[in-house]
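REVIEWER CHECKLIST
Item 1: Sequence provided? yes
Item 2: Single chain? yes
Item 3: Sequence as submitted:
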Amino acid sequence: MSIVYLNGEYLPMEEAKISPMDRGFLFGDGIYEVVPSYNGKLVGFGPHIDRMDNGLAAIDIQLDYSHDQWREIATSLSEKNGAGNLGIYFHVSRGADSKRSHAYPEGVSATVFAFAFEIPPEPVADRNVVKPYKVSTTQDLRWKRCNIKSTALLGNVMHYQHGHSEGSGETILFNERGEMTEGSAVNAYIIKDGKVITSPLDEQILPGITRLILLDVLRKDGSIPVEERVVTMQELRNADEVWITSSSKEVAPVIEVDGKAVGDGKVGDIWEKAQALFSAHKYNY
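Item 4: Structure as written out by the authors:
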């Protein structure tokens, strides 16, 4: 039986109840995070909570939870759900009001919900065992504040479904200028002539925690050059390697874009080195 956290209480999932007037349900009015945990060891915990705090501030949800409180919740959920390989999901909505109104209500308390779910084992930096991805592309039709990790994910869901319907594991998006933004649930990268290149952070792109850690690790190591700049879709299609990153995928290689092979159609050696570096340092954040 899964144990969850709801507004200060740990209880079985089946007993957790949230009002149908909660603005998270009615409007998608909230912020969320997912923190990977392998045998009780959290990946990128500090940056995840910083991003959640930034998101809450951006949409003016008042919640006075410290990093230590969030860590205690994550640790308790891991222990109460058998540790192992878990994703710890944090969800904060504005709370429940007595009426449905678009304006932010006054005098309501935020709803804080968290649960743990199983995730695959830690990725291994071995091109012979990694599961590579095939992706589709389409124009980015989401809202203009993608840097906020909102619970209102219908745009992302529809883009993900686009790829799923075409037999792909992800969808990489491009804006009206033909520039790569990100994926429906991932950040995206190309590798050309030995250099890792990814789109710069702006309102089109979620500041991914795996992205943050990966780029920091690569820059500190210095053996693989990194560049943040505009990437055209033509560059994506002519790349030597393509990667996608997320908390659940870590650094995942892509071998096919829109049915065409990336490079020689095999997982690249630069990916293998980057994933090894990420694995060696990911618990330091």
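Item 5: Key structural point noted by reviewer: The chain has a mean pLDDT of 97.
Item 6: Recommendation: ____
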